[in-house]
Design a protein that fits this description.
By secondary structure, the protein is α/β, with parallel strands linked by helices. It is built from 10 helices and 14 strands.
Amino acid sequence: MDRRGFLKSAAGAAALGLAVSSLSFKSFAAGGLVALVHTQAAGDNGPVDSMIGKLKQLSEEQGFEYRAVYAQDPATYETIFRTLADNGAAVIVSTFNEVGEAFKALAPSYPDTKWIQLFGDPIEPAIPNVVTVSYDYYLGCYLSGMFAAHMSKSGKIGFIGGISIPPINADFNAVKAGAQSVRPDATVTAAFAGSFQDPAKGQEIATQMFNDGIDYIQTDSAATDGGIINAANEKEGRMVSALDAAQYPLGPKSVIGIVSLDFGVSLYNEVSKALGPDWKGGSHIKTGLGTGVIDFVLSPLYQEQGPAELVAKAKEIWPAIEKARAGILDGSLEVPFNTTL
């Protein structure tokens, strides 16, 4: 595979396919740079688009230059990070567990660069200039499961993840626990697309689920979600809880809500801290409900355009969901974190 990074300028110019070794950083080396290295492609109506948008917003507010680099090939991770750090990057943000080893290998050699890993495990021993961030997404999934059990006519609920990894397994188990707390006879079926960037596979799996009588699917698969929503759009009454508000228009009559994990807000928050005087490296941040990053919310478009019967039912049961959310926040409702399928 051609080892290339794709760069998007702060001015929003078109992405340029350039070999990493030939990148020119002269224009911003003196003033520093905030770089986002994303390991999934842009155009996902989800995490990556949200992060790029928020980074651009923050750069305009605070006057720094940024680059968003698509690291498609894992073999290029260290090269991309090293090139950015060598050329004066003040902050490097990257995404998901797969970049953890590259961070461990390189960050100690660049102590003047602040490194932020979004969706990452704690690093032991801690590295003074690295912050890792994890997300208790499963808490929102529990609320979605409760909601699904109330909304489903069949009692059959689906869950489609990108890849079976421990955090996503925990999300599935939380949906199941939430559903069965309301309706003990509910069945919750899990499937994994094998990719976070395969809408065709998502549509194939979702179509089979809907044909099998499942009428509510919780997604957890980034760009793969687009195909799941397409399958739901084929017949009225099929419901999807997706990941990002940008997905509402993809299914105004099928995307009933989202378990939101707003990577853009998370990036905005963590980069803002890194640019301030009180940043604390060598730490791990757990992000859950009540942070503005994770929540379960209803789609306003669905409330306007969805089937009237389902819209009315959603509004009727919503106080029960809010009560459960409050219980999670005050500790009176404990949601298990179970990674075993």
